[in-house]
Amino acid sequence: MLARLKAGFVATLMCVAACAPTPETKANFFVFGTLVEVAVRGADAGQAESAFTEIQQALQRMHRDWHAWEPGLLTEINRAFAEARRTRAPEDIDALIRMSQQMERESGGRFNAAAGGLVRLWGFHTSDYPVSGPPPSGEAISAWLETAPSTLQISTSDGWLESSNRAVQLDFGGIAKGYAVDRVIEILARHGIGSAIVNAGGDLRAVGGSAADPWRVGIRKPGGGVAAGLEIDGDSAVFTSGIDQRYRQQDGKRYPHILDPRSGQAISGLASVTVVSQDAWRADAAATALMVAGPGEWRALARDMKLDKVLVINEAGDMIATPAMARSVILEPGQSGHLQISNDP
Ligand code: AMP
Ligand code: MG
């Protein structure tokens, strides 16, 4: 991946006026195991190019520093926690910890970025999917559960990090892509670009669309394709968490890479959850938390977390949307009968 990354971004500094009312300039980056496409509107070529150069460097650094298992800043921090040592808190990681703590609190522990030890136990610290072989033993899972790691056991002060629990192993897999997308939007804003879409493999944030000239995006569907369309005329992130791409397989049974930190087990019941929220980090982490909440709890959790735009696809393929989400989506003709609206929240 890093080798591919170093190849640099593929900038297509050209207007695709035929595709949109306002000319767009685009660049592609390979990072976080996915293609990140940045499209900006209304910027001149020089402005866009200098923003893209900075984005390229920033994404490369984020990928390296936040990696959960390739040696780097995060693995060093995890080592310090395991050895009960205090360690320096790089600014970005400090921010990721605070956001993760907030999401762990709000989700009642369903989102837990300190569960890296469990993710490793399940063999999901890999880029090679699907993983094959049996899931971890009940004893191994119980032993992990007894250590009860939580991001709330990490104290952050004066640029230092410390964990009161040696079992805390940070894994930002459920939030990092979102935060990276937010950082890219920030870089664009610093370069004076306020109308842009940052699309990381179907998870995206769009800014600067207007009612007259909205960004049109698709909601990712399990197994590929688009579940529904969405028009964004303000500042919104659209993130989907799903079970289709990364899982462990044994005797025909699939164990998704999203784990319930309360039971130590792989989740079941939902095929995907899409959350629309202003910040991409929040949409990303919330989609993961709602996947853990599952068919019985996602509505109540969405209400508690004040997420008004949620679209869920269950294992049977039914689409269920909150009322605000149902009002925003654009369905293909003949598709509308397949959308159920949840009256709660
Ligand atoms: P996402 O695709 O955004 O739902 O994130 C899934 C990734 O987040 C996994 O590959 C793990 O690295 C990590 N993860 C799995 N389960 C959880 C959880 N319950 N809370 C936080 N992160 C998780
Ligand atoms: Mg997520």
Largest sheet: 10 strands, mixed
CATH class category of the largest domain: Alpha Beta
CATH topology category name of the largest domain: T-fold
**What is the architecture of the largest domain at the second tier of CATH?**
Roll
* Class by SSE composition: alpha+beta
Radius of gyration, whole Å: 20 Å
Low-confidence stretches: 1-20
Q: Tally the helices: what do you get?
A: 9
Overall geometric form: globular
Distance between the termini: 41 Å
Domain count: 3
Task: Assess the beta-strand content as a share of residues.
Answer: 25-35%
Taken in chain order, the helices and strands follow as HEEEHHEHHEHEEHEEEEEEEEHEEHEE
Widest β-sheet, arrangement of strands = 1-2-3-8-9-12-15-16-17-19
| Chemical compounds bound to the protein | adenosine monophosphate, magnesium ion
Look at the structure and name the CATH superfamily of the largest domain.
ApbE-like domains
Total beta strands: 19
Give an overview in words.
The protein is α+β, with helices and mostly antiparallel strands and 345 residues long. The chain has 3 domains: 1-66 and 175-201, no CATH class; 73-163, Orthogonal Bundle (T-fold), CATH 1.10.3980; 210-345, T-fold (Roll), CATH 3.10.520. It is 33% helix and 26% strand. The protein contains 9 helices and 19 strands. The protein has helices at residues 2-6, 45-65, 73-82, 91-106, 116-121, 138-147, 176-190, 280-304, 323-328, and strands at residues 10-12, 24-31, 34-41, 87-88, 131-132, 154-157, 160-163, 196-200, 203-207, 215-220, 226-232, 236-242, 247-250, 253-256, 270-277, 309-314, 319-321, 329-330, 339-341. Strands 1-2-3-8-9-12-15-16-17-19 form a 10-stranded mixed beta sheet. α2 runs antiparallel to α7 and α7 (176-190) crosses α8 (280-304). It is globular and about 55 Å long. It starts with a helix and ends with a strand. The model is unreliable at 1-20 (pLDDT under 50). The site of magnesium ion has 6 residues, from α8.
